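User: What would this chain look like folded?
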Amino acid sequence: MIADGSEDEEKWLAAGAAAFKQNAFYMQRAIDSNNLKDALKYSAQMLSELRTSKLSPHKYYDLYMRAFDELRKLEIFFMEETRRGCSVIELYELVQHAGNILPRLYLLCTAGSVYIKTKEAPAKEILKDLVEMCRGIQHPLRGLFLRSYLAQISRDKLPDIGSEYEGDADTVIDAVEFVLLNFTEMNKLWVRMQHQGPAREKERREKERGELRDLVGKNLHVLSQLEGVDLDMYRDTVLPRVLEQIVNCRDEIAQYYLIDCIIQVFPDEYHLQTLDVLLGACPQLQASVDIMTVLSRLMERLSNYAALNAEVLPYFLQVEAFSKLNNAIGKVIEAQEDMPILSAVTLYSSLLKFTLHVHPDRLDYADQVLGSCVKQLSGKGKIDDTRATKELVSLLSAPLEKYNDVVTALKLTNYPLVVEYLDTETKRIMATVIVRSIMKNNTLITTAEKVEALFELIKGIINDLDEPQGLEVDEDDFQEEQNSVALLIHMLYNDDPEEMFKIVNVLKKHFLTGGPKRLKFTIPPLVVSTLKLIRRLPVEGDNPFGKEASVTATKIFQFLNQIIEALPNVPSPDLAFRLYLQCAEAADKCDEEPIAYEFFTQAYILYEEEISDSKAQVTALQLIIGTLQRMQVFGVENRDTLTHKATGYAAKLLKKPDQCRAVYACSHLFWLEDRETIQDGERVLLCLKRALKIANSAQQVANTARGSTGSVTLFIEILNKYLYFYEKGVPQITVESVESLIKLIKNEESMPSDPSAESFFATTLEFMEFQKQKEGAIGERYQAIKV
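Assistant: Here's the prediction, encoded as structure tokens.
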């Protein structure tokens, strides 16, 4: 078997093939002339080429296949000879006169095949003789190929049920005995290869054994194809005998391959009914055997079997498949003390997937698997093996993918304990997977207890207190994570206000301790969710039992104030400013004047102390004016105070055009059409006159700075405000004041040089003409204006 090099091996193969071809030619010539003696002579010489020890398994196989093809011709010739009167018994004896044992046994197997076909003797006797005689070849390579030839030519002549060779003297038991004996001897030869030659060639020998393994495995395939091998025979005879040989050979390569062969070639039904026998052998295998892969494939096959055949599911419970697999995995891990953490996690991951497929309604089984995994991981600390971490994520993702419902996963008490063994980065990944599952399946989390459990699972993306120093998180990834948390908040919902208030309190607890950089993402949706809760509160008097509500608007507004207070420190004062105004509007609808005033006060403080950018001030002031205009809860004193502050802010804006627009916007604060108490025409007119004054000042500044009269757009905007209030019937806005302003605009020298202002003015005049065409009071009022 030892080759000096690939070139020498090619030469030996070429020389052997040439001699083989020459003898095959003379053998064929003897066959053609019906010369049995010469046919035997040249066939023996031809087969002598298989006695070489210089070829690798791959090259030897080439030579073997040439011999196989020629032996098929010789077998046909033997059959014809028996028809011409040659005694098959004499032929069987004659082939044994060959000088060398290897050619003799090949010829004996060929003659034995003919002997069985003639049915002149029981098939079991001939098969037993052949399999015993083959023990004469103990060279591993030559012996394996010889027995492979025996298995090949005999597989269609086994006394199986329904076979023509079945009879009173020949039963399927004889066929099974023959195949098992041949398998046992072949496995011994195959294992012996591992221990021949120097230690430095171990890798080469293992490679060669890998090339030869199918020769051994074919015996198990033959067994699986026998009609007579039913469940009883498989359980009582085949499986115990095969496992006995596998365990006793004590060879890592053989044990791994043959166990896998059993799983792959025999029916799933047989595996299900013999689980205890098959699994009982696993702890007895060598510690180096990759039992993880073997058991994973077994569980995968059983899972697929259950998925394709729903009617077999009761049998899984009947044979206690889960318990047997779980116990077997525990024993294997216990037997292999040095088993890598990856292997253990993979085994439990496969078991969990098996459980979810076969027993989806048994959450206790799934939780038991997770508990076993926790027990195995205990004392290991954070897992630093990348592949093991990936497998752990796969294990944790399995319940989410199966149930499409995080609520179900939350019922698994050991689930969060497994999450604890993930490192910080992987916890973030797992948290994202959980949140995406919730959003994809529109899963509502309806109790504070479940929300608390959920946030324990996803704390990797809502809490940065335990992140290691120096851990840099990509900003885009961070924003994406926090946006997903913001979306998640809207999936935490309960129609009962009391339970919903408990939920938002849980959110508050986690968000306020989650680190300042996350607050600008999480506080706004929390505020919105809480404001929705306020709208669902029962109106006073709706409770017929007179029971005092534990959740009141006052409590909720206090809660809102507490969470918004955290934002200016982030810093996100503009965000806090907007939220205060939203809360003020909500308080207005609840008729809570003191609370609404307090929220406005907080907004004003932020405007004065935190918002310094001129553009931001303009936007903020527009929000103040718009919100204050819609407020109906304030009494005269509070409203005057807030309105006075707003007009003061407007007059202090940096840019004159901004001042002008803010001041004329304040005019809306003094005239609300639907509220007679807020209809102060004098102050409306005062705001508009002040706006005209500021617009005039802005034009002078433009003239001084740029040498031009500046845009007339501000005057046209003010004209539109005059028209609005004139149409609403404000007494102080007279026809004369409107006509005077129109005349002022027409006299502006800058109008022709500013197409946009010219177009704006033309559109305003067209609007006035359109209003004149209307019937009723509005048409009459506009008719009075002479353009």
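The longest helix spans residues 6-32. If you want, I can go into more detail on any region.
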